[in-house]
Amino acid sequence: MMKPGILLDVSGLRIEGESGGQWQEIVKGVSFQLDRGEVLGLIGESGAGKSTIGLAALGYARPGCRFSGGQVRFEGRDLLHMPENELRRLRGMRIAYVAQSAAAFFNPAHRLIDQFIEVLAVHGFADHAAAAAKARNLYARLGLPDPAGFGQRYPHQVSGGQLQRAMIAMAMAGDPDLIVFDEPTTALDVTTQVGVLAAVRSAVRGSKTAALYITHDLAVVAQVADRIMVLRHGQTVEEAETQSLLHAPGQEYTRRLLASDPVIRPERAAECHLLEIDNLSASYGARRVLDAISIRVPKARTMAIVGESGSGKSTLARVITGLLAPDTGTLCLDGTVLAGGVDQRDRETLRRIQLIHQMPDTALNPRQKVSEILGRPLMFYKGIKSEAAAAQVAHLLEQVELSPALGDRFPGELSGGQKQRVCIARAISADPDLIICDEVTSGLDPLVAEGILDLLSTMQKQSGKTYLFITHDLKIVAAIADTVVVMKNGEVIEQNGRDAVLKNPLSSYTERLIESVPQMNSGWLDALIAREGADARNPEDRRFP
Amino acid sequence: MTPLARSAAGPSATGWRPSFAWMKVLAAAPLSAKLGLFIVASYVAVAISAPWVSPYGEAEIVGSQFEPWSARFLLGTDNLGRDMLTRLVYGARNTVGIAFASTLLAFAVGGVLGIFSAVAGGWPDHLLSRAIDVLMAIPQLIFSMFLLTIFGMSVPVLIAVIALVDSTRVFRLARALAMNVVTMDYIDVARLRGESRLWIMRREILPNILSPLVAEFGLRFCFVFLMISALSFLGLGIQPPTADWGSMVRDNATLITYGDVTPLLPAGAIAVLTIGINYLIDWFLDKSSGLREGQ
User: Fold this and answer.
1) Considering only the top CATH level, what class is B31-294?
2) Angle (nearest 5°) at CA A124 between A120 and A128
3) pTM, two decimal places
């Protein structure tokens, strides 16, 4: 029998997923209990089954999945065998769900407050004025600017972090007993993430609401969870109180996750510059996105470009590669001035600058085999064909630590980390001087990302390539960069050696970027909020009044 | 070979392994797909072997007008005393052949221009898109009647006119599909490598939009068919004495007044082929969307 007070009791949960007509177990007997007012963090790599478990707490299995065993009891009632109409009554009111992407969650054609009221109206609360008052109340509690007027906006009129908080407000509409947060901050900048984390915490702290918090970032979950459960391949690795898990992990896998912060490599001084950018400005239509940028990129070193989204860092990459022609200013590679647009550059110049994209899924043509993807640059730049190319492709795959047998596969048959390695192999197959890495690790699990960083730095040691590393993750900057450029609203606001920038930031913006990186101790968020005050908690609100 | 057919062979040659896998795929196909395949295959077989399987010559007058069904004339004779069955068999050859040629041409022109438009962007895209809009603003049938009147009624002109009219729809589809692919990072990668526009169109975009295009090919094929029949019925399509299903309905329409179903047979032939082709397309769509899921 269950103890009284236990809200959610998951025991021996098994879920199967279908792939290619076969059912495979993706959750293999997971059990946990959740008291009222308690927050349990579920953490693991992609494919660990954490989102699937989160949805099971709503009695829901995604299309292509089915429950094959175990129980999910909410207040003693089995959700897995509950009729659909009863489930529907629970969902949204007693059990709420916060998805990863708020942009996909909201209907762009309706005002935020109307969508909020609808949640209550669907469940039979007809008093619109009371519902609207409740919405304003929650907006204020979650620290949204102008709570009275906020709901009158449409989803596209507010920033990503604000939208995420509006979604949390909607989840709280029915005063739920349980909220499932499914990676609510994964798609956000570090500075925006702080605001959303604060909102998540004020949603669960001091109320009787329990929560499941799903993430792959241990430092994030340490800020909000009372207990943490580590999952891998659909099984529980371990479950413990947050403090004891952080300080005395019981399992090897947990230790690896805890230590998954990248290894810090020493800063190296530069001898000469490979790329000189002078007074560069660029715009999309009438909107100026880069304003008089001047940067010196040191040869055979790693330069990091950091900044929030919208600061122009990816645009800078597009201008350097030639995808976007600049309005004014010059780009100088090894003493030669580069033509603005990609069509005016000769093949040799194009070869010398290679770009690795953030999302390997869209950077690889799904209809070309890996061998074709890697073989084409060899053939295109060096005229290497058929058998010689096949040998080279195998060598390239070995260089990025992949099995040469993968050459025969389509990108869809590879994992995220493998795809990114193929992208790296494609970039080095051209034997470039400059490789621009645009957020190459942000879509990957921490352990996989660490592998990619290792690979890149090993290759730099061997071949002396120059990296321009665009990222918003200052942990990566601290680990691999030699010099750092900080960008804000299309301008360079700081440019210096890595240690100088990180240890003695000159601007408050840089300081805030550094402070917003979640630390692996549970008091970090509290300390940050206490130090900065309520205003700094949601720095983006000042930018979007 | 038309450009489209040639480029279509490129990706399939690299994507499909030469094996007996297709036989397995065929065996696993649903009944509707097998039926569709059977219908299409038998039409093609009949069309090819028309001179051998038909009892009489295409335009040969072998009996008196409107003879009833008999052992000598299995489906009776038409308004001039020609054998209906023979005309039906030859009609498959003419109507299906012309429909296939026009659809192929429509896809070659519309597909290439559509993908080009998406890749080029800017003013070439605007120019092409607006020009196509203008063409589409004119009602299809009236526009083709107009062109046929100007250029005269011969089979090549007929094919060209129908292809032109139909390529506008293909252009729209190909451009829309290619637009989705053009925004992908791997197109940027190809551009940054310095690849030519043709290579990007053929190797990066075409393989990714091929399955919806092929599906559309089947559908448009049916429409072309109906259009040829409609034009023939109006006297602007395939000219006598060449047998064709549309004009066969027109020539023998009076028989319906007497409760004879013979004039409906060519219409039925069109209907059955349309159904067969659509079964095949459904199956193909099913297969290719399954492929897309796995990517």
Assistant:
1) mainly alpha
2) 55
3) 0.78
Q: How far apart are CA A421 and CA A481, in angstroms?
A: 20
Q: Could you tell me if A366 lies within 8 Å of chain B, comparing CB atoms? A: yes
Segment 412-431 of chain A within 8 Å of chain B by CB: 412, 426, 430
In chain A, residues under CATH classification 3.40.50.300 are: 6-258, 273-503
Class of domain A273-503: alpha beta
Contact A433, A273 (CB under 8 A): no
Per-residue pLDDT of chain A (545 residues; tens, 9 = 90+): 445 568 899 999 999 888 767 888 889 989 999 988 889 999 988 778 888 899 999 988 888 888 988 889 998 888 888 898 888 888 888 899 998 878 788 888 999 999 999 888 888 877 888 999 999 988 988 888 888 889 999 988 888 788 888 998 999 888 899 999 988 887 777 888 888 888 888 878 767 889 999 988 888 888 888 899 999 888 899 999 988 888 888 888 888 888 767 777 888 887 888 999 999 999 888 888 899 999 999 999 999 999 887 788 888 999 999 999 999 999 999 888 998 888 899 999 999 999 999 888 889 999 899 999 999 999 999 888 878 889 999 999 988 888 898 888 888 888 888 898 999 999 999 989 999 998 888 777 778 888 888 888 888 988 889 999 998 888 888 888 999 999 988 899 999 999 888 888 888 888 888 888 888 777 788 888 777 654 444 545 443 33
Q: Decide if B295 and A366 are in contact by the 8 Å CB cutoff.
A: yes
Check if the beta carbon of residue A293 is closer than 8 Å to that of residue A351.
no
How far is the alpha carbon of B188 from chain A, nearest alpha carbon, in Å?
A: 8
Contacts of A20 in chain B (CB under 8 A): 294
- A363 in contact with chain B, both atoms CB, cutoff 8 A: yes
Could you say which of 1.10.357.10, 3.40.50.300, 3.40.1830.10, 1.20.1090.10 is the CATH number of the domain covering A6-258? Answer: 3.40.50.300
Closest partner residue to B192 among A321, A365, A412, by Cβ?
A321
Q: Please, where are the H alpha helices in A22-107? A: 50-56, 84-90, 102-105
Contact between A365 and B193 using a beta-carbon 8 Å cutoff: no
Helix (H) or strand (E) holding A493: strand A491-497
